[in-house]
Amino acid sequence: MYNRLYIINTMPTTKADSDAGRDRRHFLARFLQWTLGLFSLILVYPLLRFLGYTVKPKPRHMTVAAPLPLSGYHTERDFILFAGDGKPFAVSRTCTHLGCRVNFLEDKQIIECPCHQSRFSPRGKVLSGPAKKNLTTLAVVTKKTADGEVKDYIVTL
Ligand code: FES
Questions:
Q1: Pocket of ligand 1, candidates 92, 93, 97, 128: which has the most ligand atoms within 8 Å of its Cβ, to mutate?
Q2: Is any atom of ligand 1 closer than 6 Å to the C-beta of 112?
Q3: I need a labelling partner for 74 at 20 to 30 A (CA). Which of 42, 90, 117, 141 fits?
Q4: 113 in ligand 1 pocket by Cβ < 6 Å?
Q5: Domain extents for the chain?
Q6: Strands (E) located in the chain
Q7: Looking at domain 61-156, which CATH architecture does it have?
Q8: What does the pLDDT look like over 17-74, one tens digit per residue?
Q9: The pTM is what?
């Protein structure tokens, strides 16, 4: 039978063995840190992209039937359409100050914001603040019948 006891010495016997072991542990620790850092980035990156991502809205086309009222303008929820002098134009109703919905004051021929009384010309130009930027102008396409009569106005938001 075997009655000898074998002892496996795992301790480094020389200084060179000790340094090699320390270098290996150091390398493995660094490798593990970099691997975890990389995996963290891989997991966090999509989340950061999601948080910072804004979806650009598709353009909407709104149709306004002709003729416009005799007043020469038509108000919708998001825009005001003016007949112009044969060349229709539209401006957004979103105030450039803080986003309230502006109204056209027919008697004064100005667009005014009910929130902080910014005033704009019918073309959307700032007349008085606090808004500093003009109202957004919107593209208007005129659809005509075969006779050349205006049938619809198509406003692109
Ligand atoms: S939101 Fe229109 S003036 Fe402030």
A1: 97
A2: no
A3: 117
A4: yes
A5: 1-54, 61-156
A6: 61-65, 73-75, 79-82, 89-92, 103-105, 110-112, 119-120, 126-128, 137-144, 150-156
A7: 3-layer Sandwich (2.102)
A8: 777 778 888 999 999 999 999 998 888 888 888 888 777 888 898 888 888 778 788 8
A9: 0.62
